[in-house]
Amino acid sequence: MINSTTLAEELALHGTCAGTTRGVSMEPLFRTNRDVVVIERPASELKKYDVALYRYPDGKYVLHRVIGVRDDIYLIRGDNTFVVERIPKEWVIGVLVRFNRKGKSHSCEERGYKAYSVIWNFLYPVRYLWHRTRMLLGRAKRWLFRKRRTEDGKQ
Amino acid sequence: MQLKNGFVLESVGGAYLAVAVGEEAVMANALIRMNATGAFIWRLLSEGDYTEEQLVEAMLGEYDVPRELAERDIRAFIAKITEAGLLR
Questions:
Q1: Nearest-CB residue to A40 (from B12, B25, B33)
Q2: Domain boundaries, position A135
């Protein structure tokens, strides 16, 4: 997600805008208030792996990655989320062109960044399994802990 | 005078955008838009302490502009960043 209320106006007026990001959904790439994203009004349709800035009808802005392009919608997923959103193309108001991460400036055309985008998406099944496993382990731990406490209570 | 820490300067499509990060981003959600000469002064003031006169000299060394124009631009720029509370 992104950290400004005037993004749409900035984009409409100048065709560009920049801001910090909020939330964990694009980690490990972007961290809240640490990194800066530079957004441009898209000149054409977005491609797979582009990072789209879009606005929900309720006014909320989100910056997540395109993982598929269909006729009227984009399939979009945050680098650190596990749901696919189906976003109408007209909701998209911007595309990520540059970013400043840990104080270092990068273009989205850089080979390293492009490789990250492809590999991170390719590893999704592994990341998903790891995420599920951690959740199950957490649940098991909580269940065991609760069980132990009731037994203690009986003694 | 010198700029506060905690701003990132990025360029895109001929424009320069300064954005507050870290502590500054928590305080104010600032986006400052400037042109190439503005960015030149911005870089100087983020790296060191300069007087108005020193900024004019630096600008005359970098750009082929009349002194009066450089002085006027720098005075306007300083007024803007002072008003926005961006100086230390």
A1: B12
A2: 124-155
